[in-house]
Amino acid sequence: MDISTVRWDRGSGWSAPLPPWDGPGTLVLVFGSADLLDDDTDLRAVAAAFPSSAVIGCSTSGEILDSGVYDDSITVAVARFERTELALEVEPVTQSSSAEVGRKIGSRLLGRADDLAAVFVLSDGLDINGSNLAAGLTEGTGGSVVITGGLAGDGSRFERTWVLVDGRPQAAYVTAVGLYGAALEVGHGFEGGWMVLGPKRVITRSEGNVLLELDGQPALELYKTYLGERASGLPATALLFPLAIQTGEEADGELVRTVLAVDESQQSMTFAGDVPQGATAQLMRGTTEALVDAAQVAAATARLQGDQPTLGIAVSCVGRRLYLGQRVEDELEAVTSGLGPQCGLVGFYSYGELSPLAAGTCDLHNQTMTLTVFGERAA
Predict the structure, then answer these.
(1) In 3-state terms, what secondary structure has residue 277?
(2) Any idea what DSSP says for residue 159?
(3) Angle, CA of 356, 339 and 319, to the nearest 5°
(4) The model scores a pTM over 0.85
(5) What is the pLDDT of residue 259?
(6) How many CB atoms lie within 10 A of CB 228?
(7) 3-state secondary structure of 207
(8) Which of 143, 172, 262, 315 has the most CB within a 10 Å radius?
(9) 51-64 exposure pattern, b = at least 16 Cβ within 10 A, e = fewer
């Protein structure tokens, strides 16, 4: 397995030439600014260099390359597998079709061959129900495949996102690559590092991923009391205070949810994933040290053993970036250190992360550092 990572920006162009590795066993990951919707010339150049490869990518709230995070750039990772086969699937998506789109993509990837080992998926970051997408993907793949990925970002603007479709940036799509064969090794891990703040409250009224009432009170009104003067910056400031949603007594029943939009007229909040009625919700807060430590734990969980080259893909929440501020690279340094020198790292800051809660069961996460590592076993 060969790995190359490069970066482009308007001032200096490409940091190195794209490697001449086009072929059916080559995976190309591309992450860039949402503004590339206005001029996709350089995105098309990447796709043109790899016409027979699996090219997948999305917009971001910051592009990750090794221990650095960049804006208004393009980061590219090219991984040439020796004994792993790849297949790409794309579907348009809306919030209401998220589950069905996941089932379609999952079942098509599963139907291509009986040795599907992993799926990496990228989705529109706004017109999506990430929980339903994850559930559909799990159902479509039969619940026995590692599914990871994330929701595209748009800085802290929440206005427009894209994924690559036939080498061009398109809104309102989901794209996924299936990886096949016994030679593939997959590592994955996620951690948040957030701590609960204040009392638990019951979700007394919700509709899918729209939260309307907590303890019988308008959800947005109650949430604003916690934010204080930060409430004027909604929805972006909500990223600093996510909600822990507890759906059961099990430890893995807790998910973190963050706000995508607010509706003043309904006093409601729209989240990237479901907020089930009857579940409990609790505000969360963080510290820089706790978030960085969590990233290091995620890396230790995801790291593959041995000295073979590996490809690491980091999907971290935009809320973490906003919270960490100038110390955001501390999180990435913890990841690169934890994954080891043999691992080339790319990724992006997102509007949601996809990773298994248990074997074969993918779910949406918010405010986590989520890592996927691909490698190949020695022949």
Answers:
(1) coil
(2) S
(3) 60
(4) yes
(5) 85
(6) 9
(7) strand
(8) 315
(9) eebbbbbbbbbbbb
Contacts of 229 (CB under 8 A, 6+ apart): none
Structure tokens at 329: 């690279």
Residues 6+ apart with CB under 8 A from 142: 110, 360
Strand order through the sheet with 26-32 = 13-14, 2-9, 73-80, 26-32, 54-59, 163-165, 168-170
Q: pLDDT tens digits for 299-335? A: 999 999 988 999 999 999 999 999 999 999 999 999 9
Instruction: Say which residues have a Cβ less than 8 Å from residue 258's Cβ, sequence separation at least 6.
Output: 238, 239, 242, 243, 271, 272, 317, 319, 352, 366, 367
- For residue 123, give the 3-state DSSP assignment: strand
Distance between terminal CA atoms of the chain?
11
Type of residue found at 233: G
> How far apart (Å, rounded) are the C-alpha atoms in residues 361 and 356?
5
Place of tokens 């409430």: 231
- Whether the pLDDT of residue 8 is over 90: the answer is yes
Q: How far apart are CA 10 and CA 7, in angstroms?
A: 10
